[in-house]
Design goal:
heterotrimer, A mainly alpha, B alpha+beta, C alpha/beta, A: mainly alpha, Histone, subunit A, two-stranded antiparallel sheet, 4 helices, about 40% helix, about 10% strand, C: alpha/beta, Amidase signature (AS) enzymes, 11-stranded mixed sheet, binds magnesium ion, binds zinc ion
Amino acid sequence: MSAISREDVAHLAHLAHIEMSDAELDKMTGELGVIVQAIASVSEAASADVPATTHPIALTNVFREDVVGETLTAEEALMNAPDSVDTRFRVPAILDGE
Amino acid sequence: MTSHIDELVDFDVALEKYDPVLGFEVHVELNTKTKMFSAAPNVFGDTPNTNVTPVCLGLPGVLPVVNKTAVEYAIMIGLALNCKIAERCGFARKNYFYPDTPKNFQTSQYDDPIAYDGWIDIELEDGEVFRVEIERAHMEEDAGKLTHMGGSTGRIQGADYSLVDYNRSGVPLVEIVTKTIEGAGKRAPELAKAYVAAIREIVKALDVSDAKMERGNVRCDANVSLMLKGAEKFGTRTETKNVNSLRAVEHAVRFEIERHAAVLNSGAAIVQETRHWHEDTRTTTSGRPKSDADDYRYFPEPDLVPVVTTLEWIEELRSRLPEPPAERRKRLQADWGYSDAEFRDVVNAGITEQIEETIAAGTTAAVARKWWMGEIARLANAADKDVIDLGVTPATIVELNSLIEAKKINDKIARQVLEYVVGGEGTPSEIVEKRSLAVVNDDSALGAAVDDAIAAMPDVVEKIKAGKMAAIGALMGPVMKATRGQADAGRVRELVLEKLGLAG
Amino acid sequence: MNEIIRLSATELAAKLRAGEITSVAAVQAHLDRIAEVDGGEHGVHAFLHVNTEEALAVAAEVDAIRAAGGAEAEALHPFAGVPIAIKDLIVTKGQPTTAASKMLEGWMSPYDATVIEKIRAAKLPMLGKTNLDEFAMGSSTEHSAYGATRNPWDLNRIPGGSGGGSAAAVAAFEAPLALGTDTGGSIRQPGAVTGTVGVKPTYGGVSRYGAIAMASSLDQIGPVTRTVLDSAYLHELIGGHDAADSTSLNEPVPALIAAAETGASGDMTGVRVGVIKELQGEGYEAGVQARFDESLEALRAAGAEIVEVSCPNFKYALGAYYLISTSEVSSNLAKFDGVRFGTRVLPTEGPLTIERVMGATRAAGFGEEVKRRIILGTYALSAGYYDAYYGSAQKVRTLIQRDFEAAFEHADVLISPTCPTVAFELGSKVDDPLAMYLNDIATIPANMAGIPGITIPGGLSEGLPVGIQFLAPAREDARLYRAGAALEKLLEDKWGGRLLDQAPELSAATGGVA
Ligand SMILES: [Mg+2]
Ligand SMILES: [Zn+2]
């Protein structure tokens, strides 16, 4: 189990879209290190032949019939929008020059 | 590092040195009534953000529920592509942030697609059959639609802001992924186009998609790499995203082959990246490099339970499949009486269904072929578009043909009318009406013109009366002039003879 | 104190049906109590929003129906008119839903959670929304962006978490009923430290539609009450299949009320109670262990067969829980990005792109604990670590399920202390995530396995409540009510009343404790 570096945390923060100051990165690196250490034994707990459980209760084939249901009005859809134009959500430029 | 290459290597020259290796990811939008995971209507083109439920917007607290019909359509596509159908498969989350993706993850399938290990035979223009192997076909959901505002012409680059419509968010998709395709050689661009055309044809025949490429119902990501002839290892590939017409697929593959060859010849390396296709310049430009930033952190979707397929279910779905494309083609060619060459041209143009619908709507096979492979193909070529993207429908041809049969217009005018249809002026009847293009065979108007011509040319009249029937042609000129070319020549001849008392 | 608010929900419902009290009076009594003890610097602070007008309107409607009599009155749910508080993780139309996060400050849901639809249909007036740890991440309710909730037993102590608001509201007689959500113990641990009853149903027993997801494969909505019978009524009301939740069990709700009524006799003859060896002893406070041992004695005396069972893989449960829950958290909370709803924060410098707006929004909108878990989850799922972390944790889940299966071969229900300690002091663990996580050591295995659990008051240790937990196999929630009601009866007989009768009086005038 490799230790978590500050660069790792910076990368994770980037993946998670959370801006972090240098001080926050330092603090998070320390805390995460401790937590990861504490839970590291999990990776050795189960042998290869133990199947993974993704769902606590095993159900299969839960489907919906292809029938149109109730929709939101545009007003309801946009009632919490931080910014909108007519009936569309508005967001700042997507990329800084892709 | 990426090296900027402006020059391309000529296609044939490139192919002397390199073998192209292809791969395709085709996204097919299903035509179910509702979305993949919510009961919102799956409808194109309504007021933005009206075909949405809390699920489509990814509101706090919502949960997905799988559309059974979408699963069945995915299985049918898998069967039509000769795939194995998974006994058990599940959904997974593909995590990435993008404002058109309301949950900031796409619900997709990861290591257990519903269909896998299939193949499809593609008939090329010279009649040779090329087998493309299918790696997988999996279910997923579409994203919303972004419109980039400000900056230049709706491009993402330089836009000031973007507007988001989630009507398309959650529309069911089946993504069909090929295995790597080797050995296409010079026919790589042609194969690319034919492959996408074949997928289109299949999903249309299955009636699981509207299959309109211009609407994005079928979208192709094309992977291209080159390897030196005789080499054993594949070269680095690029993925050109969202190539959305048959000819664009052909052009994009050709362009990338020429560009890769130029980069490699210069001694530089190809960067593994996504590329954007630009229809206007017929070039690709660099998108985002594939890096470890593309860490999608897939994991099994805890909010959805696995899909288990039984043999009975699969066989029931198999029984719904239409006849296989190859058999269907054989049947159609026999029904229509086309020669091998004629029929192959139709298939290669991707208009089998158009011809079939045209004939079903009431024209003969010969008439259908005459228009689709003649004037429409010519107009498409001139406009640099696929025939099916021209806006001409089977109904257009049927209407045009009935106008000709009713002698309202002649062939020459019909071709003109077609041009106006392509120009968006309306249906053939509307155009004939609006532009007063109907052939003049109304006797009073025509009669007056004939009277005038007779009065103006006594010498010609004498010749005719003397039995020189060819002289009638000389009267034709003034009559045509008077009716702006819309006189029916046969009727003019009859009138002249009638008026000179020569009619038999 | 107004007598109405001390009634259990079942008692209050009976008085409403008999016409002895009106629902308006009942709702008003609780609103008065909230006004008296909830606010102020030393108030309980169980509520983030009080839904005065709507609650009174629903109460008046129920009163009118009852007054008119006839078929409509007959058709009313037995609890119609009994007020309820809702954990602010469950979305409600017409009332704000914040998840105790700045991210959702001012957000109004355009739809109701399925459980809310059921509560509206049964006409239970909703008193308001209760406090929690932000997005349900925590064991003390100190991680609320809107300030901590206090434990009514000692206002300097935590009420547990994440559902500290619901538990405190019920313990402080601000509401007879509340809804909670339990991902790793967020109903049961607050129940234990506030001397109340809390139930985590079998996974899928209650629809999750409209509960803001923390960890989808672990979350479950459940009742928070003062008696086992009240929980049974509320559980039957909110339970059952929901087509909007793919993980919802498509089977009828078990007969929980009947089970609780059976249990209320106090007879445990023939019931095998398994003591989980690994969930006691070391790490458990002496006072907690003492109350636990007394409970076992009481059960034995009532005819129960006490057996010991071993669940050796529980030692991995906490680690596996944090890997699975944070992984799911990292994905579930990605939607909070300032695009469609909620807070949007612009970066203070540099280019204004949506990427940066998302980054700034999530930096400002999420609290520290939430960020910590998102980063841990992102790590556990990231390329190269998935197999070691998330993958292994899912295997541990299988091992825990096997442990339970083996244990239930020898026992009808399992028993343990609900948590290792009594309520700790506010601020004492907030900077030590690991110490905080350890509080859930006994509640987490049930979530990992999807099985149901209940906590009931087990007595006091140094004047603070201790909780006793029963666990049952999946779909056997009725066994919890049978055993829980029996132990409740046995202990109350011993105490001469409910444990909460021993709680200190609260009043605004004295800044809390009178
Ligand atoms: Mg792809
Ligand atoms: Zn895809």
